[in-house]
Write the C-alpha cells for this entry.
Amino acid sequence: MQAFLAASFFLLVCAVPASAQTDAPPVETETAKLSPVVRELELSATVTSPRASQISTSVDGLVSAIYYDSGAEVKQGDLLLELDAEIEEAAYSQAEALTHQAEAELADSKRRLRIADKLASRNYGTQNEAEARAAEVEIDTAALESRKAELARRAAILERHKLRAPYDGIISERMAELGQWLATGTAAFELVAMKGLRIDAPVPQQYFAQVSKGAEASLVFDAIPGKTFPAKIGALIPVSDPDARTFTLRVLPVDENLPITPGMSARTKLKLKTGDEDVVVSRDALIRHPDGRITVWVVEEEDGVAQVKERKIEIGLAFGGMVQVLSGLKDGEQVVVRGNESLHEGQAVRLAS
C-alpha cells in the first residue's frame, strides 16, 4: 500500500511541469537590444510653389483682349492678354514698307554697279563711274540695315503689347479687366507654378544641427487622409523668423505628381539622430498602469519552463514603433510583445514559433 502511494505521488509531481506547459498561454517575444536612439519630430507644414508672381505688361495701354481667367492652366508662352496696338501696328507697317523700299533701292544700286563694272572692263565707261556706283551700294546697304533695325524695334514694341505666360502654371487671380487702362508694372495676373511643389515647415532652432539635407522624411496631407508619402529634405533656410527663433525646413516629396496644390496644410515627420545608444524595445511590449507605472513582461527559464516576470522600466524617446528604455532592462533580455494583456507573475508561457 505504501509503495502504491509513493508511486502515485511521484507520478503527480512529474506531471505538474508537463501540465503547466500544456496549459501555458502562447506569447510572442522580442529581444531588447542596444540601438542608436532616434528622435522623431513631427511638424506642421504648408505646400508652397517654387514660383508665384504677379505679372504685368512692360508698356502702357488699353486692354483689348483677355484670353484666360482665374483657375486656368497655362503653358509658357501662352498669350494671356493684349493691349490695343492700332498705332503701333501702323508704325510697324510703315517700317516694313520702308524696309521693302530699301531692299529695292539696294537691288537697283547693285544692278547699276554691275553695269558700270562691265562697261569699265570694256573701256566704254570710266573707273570713276564704277567707283561711284560702288559707293551707292554701300550707302544703300547701310540704309537697309537701318530700316531692318527700325522694323525689329517696332516688332518688339508691338510684342510688348502682348502679355505671355513666363512659365507653366495656374492663374490664381486675374486683376485686369477688358477696356482697362493698364499702366506699366500694374499686375494683370497672378501666376503660380504647379511643378516642383515643396513643403515648408518652421523648425525650432535647437534642431538645426540635427537636420541634414537629403535626409529621409515622410509627409501626410490633410486633404489626402490615411496616406503617408515618402520625402526628403531639400533645403535648410537658416534665418526664417528671428523673433520666433525658427528656421524653414523645405521638404520635397519623392513623387512629384501628388494631387496637392499650394496652400494645402501638411505634416512632416523627421528622424533626428541623437548620437545616443540605448536599450530599445517594441512599443507593443509596454504595459501602462493607471498609477503611471510602465512595466514589461520578461521571459525567464526555470527548470526548462519559460516563465514571465513583471519588470518596471523607465522609458525615453519613442521612434519607429520602438521605445528607448532608460532603466529596468538589459541588452539581450526577452520581452513579451503579443499575449501580454492578462499575464501574472511567475506564470508559465509557451513561446509561439
Remarks:
- The mean pLDDT is 88.
- The first strand starts at residue 26 and ends at 31.
- The chain has three helices and 22 strands.
- The chain has four domains: 25-38+277-351, 41-51+196-274, 52-84+162-195, 85-160.
